Request: fold
Amino acid sequence: MEGSADTLKPPYYAVIFTSLRTDVDSSGYEKMADRMVELGSMQPGFLGVESARGADGIGITVSYWASLEAIRSWREHFEHRIAQELGREKWYQWYRLHICRVETMIGFERGE
Amino acid sequence: MEGSADTLKPPYYAVIFTSLRTDVDSSGYEKMADRMVELGSMQPGFLGVESARGADGIGITVSYWASLEAIRSWREHFEHRIAQELGREKWYQWYRLHICRVETMIGFERGE
Reply:
């Protein structure tokens, strides 16, 4: 995960963004997606982000936050609002946004 | 999402499983992953699952559940326990499991 969420103790918050892309404007989308990760990572209360998109076009991005207030501020950020608009206008076939409170985190890492 | 989580009203629960695969035993892993989706989907309280793994090898699977009790039962299921053991033994370089309470769900679907 980018950020430092590995060492956090719950409760904190997760935003699960699941989406299916359209075929429209891939390069514009990629550029905006990179910008949103960069900008989101600079927001107060940002803890980390992880992302995967499979061959079937379905993508899941999970971002972690210190509070619901931090999530709300980021969702209302001016540049982020433009990205959301463009997403609905052309980039996404569908998306689902789940805002969650993390209750438990369990990690495993292989030894050397 | 497989299942019927699209029409649900929070609160319900999400399990975010983020992982990096090793290079070991891909076919065994794929077979077990398919079996776990099949078996998990049959558990009481299962609401849906979505999954993506990108070219960098990082995968995110999110499953949705009616209660923490349903999540606990599934984690303790005999066959699932074997899968978890094998995962730590050979399939995963690392993983993180976040158990979360869904507070808000927002959906978007493109019109025809």
About this structure: Residues 8-102 of chain A form a domain with the Alpha-Beta Plaits fold (CATH 3.30.70.100). Chain A has a mean pLDDT of 92. The CA atoms of residues 22 and 91 of chain A lie 5 Å apart. Chain A touches chain B through 36 residues (CB under 8 Å).
